[in-house]
Amino acid sequence: MGGAGEERRRAPEQSLVRRAFDEGWPAVCGWVPKRVRREAEAYQRCGEVRYGLVEVACEDCETARLVAFSCKGRGWCPSCTNRRAVETGVRLAALLPHVGHRQWTLSLPFTLRFQVVKKPVLLKRLEVRLVRAVWRWQRREARRQGVTAPLRGGAVVFTQWFGSMLQLTPHLHVLVPEAQWTTKPLEATSFSGEAVEVAPPTDDDVAAVLARVLRQAKKDFAEEDAAWPEDEYEKGQRESLQRPLALELPPTARRRRVAVAHGFSLHADTWVHGNDRQGLERLARYGARGPVAETRLRRLEDGRYEYLPKKGVSFVVSAEQLVRRLVSLVPPAKTHLTSFHGVYAPHAALRPLVTAPPPKPAPVSSKKRRRPSRRLDWASLHQHTFGTDVLRCPCGGRRRIIAIHSTRKAAEERLTQLGH
């Protein structure tokens, strides 16, 4: 980014992750499935104006700028996964009610991770069982407080398929409010939606929740046969389940609200206050983040790459090894990375009473009003993330969109006209 009110064009072709990917992709592209190949090809076009662009111009000085399309990938693209994380954090901080929220993180044993990768529905079943077990404990705590009315809980689940050391590690981050809501009807078609706050869980409560999840999930995994890789891509996925270079994480001290049983781990000690909206946004961004951080990768003099994870020790790999690891982290097809449960679900009867009202859209000068988008526009995200108004021209005027070139042919024709 430049100075105040000034921005520079994204240069993805100069990023280190992109450079490493371009070096290692030719040796890997021959054995990946079509969906992963499409993800890789879209990533190589991300931010390139010749594949599609938006043309904006200042209303005062008429200076034009070109904004490239993004790939919107679900895999490893640092730019698009960071955009999704920021957007998710902003939306949830504005949407979720002003009650405390606790993060419940469920990790799986190594022996079951490849089964989950091969059959993602197993992880979805674990997700549902964990959410219901937490709700059941919360309702029991509310009954101890003397609450007799029917109660409903809510949850936002972030499914992550990666670990901090770029290993394939399917696990769940479940954001649960420290409250449940009454469903006592006021009229024939309305509910009261009164919040009933519950006390934080103890170590024994976390252990009891995990025990209940495992009792119910036992039959799910007992009915499944052992999973084996069937092609080169799945063989790479199985290899990426192990820690890079067989490095062990340093030992950590025992923490509160952590339960471990049969290789499963449930952590529930991360919590934010109901009035800490920035903390809630950071927690949501953490759950929705991508696997790769551009700042943690550096190129060595011998052409290899060193990655410094947030936890553990750094490891050095070649470009091909890095790409093999990245392509194995693409989430399975037709799976949601963010899910809403209970009163937070889109069509829940209590959702309008529980969640905060959405912000009113800014007034539109045009006579023809467009339907509000479910996504935050790129200018708002830039403003929120970097504090820079990209629609403000250095001359002080406002920029507006004057043309959209959505195909490569149209974009290249326009670039030729502009002399690029």
Please give the count of helices. Answer: 12
Structural category is: alpha+beta
Biggest sheet, open or closed, and with what strands and sense? 6 strands, antiparallel
Low-confidence stretches: 1-6, 186-190, 244-249, 364-368
- The end-to-end span amounts to 22 Å
Order of strands across the biggest sheet? Answer: 9-10-3-6-5-14
The helicity comes to: 25-40%
Total strands: 15
Shape, principal axes of CA atoms: globular
What's the gyration radius in Å?
24 Å
How much beta, percentage-wise? 15-25%
Topology as a string of helices (H) and strands (E)? HHEEHEHHEEEEEHHEEHEEEHEHHEH
Q: Average pLDDT value?
A: 85
Question: What is the secondary structure topology, with strand pairs?
Answer:
Elements: H1 16-24, H2 34-45, E1 53-58, E2 64-68, H3 78-95, E3 101-107, H4 110-118, H5 121-144, E4 151-152, E5 154-162, E6 168-177, E7 179-182, E8 195-197, H6 203-222, H7 232-239, E9 258-261, E10 264-272, H8 277-288, E11 297-299, E12 305-307, E13 315-317, H9 319-327, E14 338-342, H10 351-354, H11 378-386, E15 399-405, H12 408-418
Antiparallel strand pairs: 1-2, 1-15, 3-6, 3-10, 4-7, 5-6, 5-14, 7-8, 9-10, 11-12, 12-13
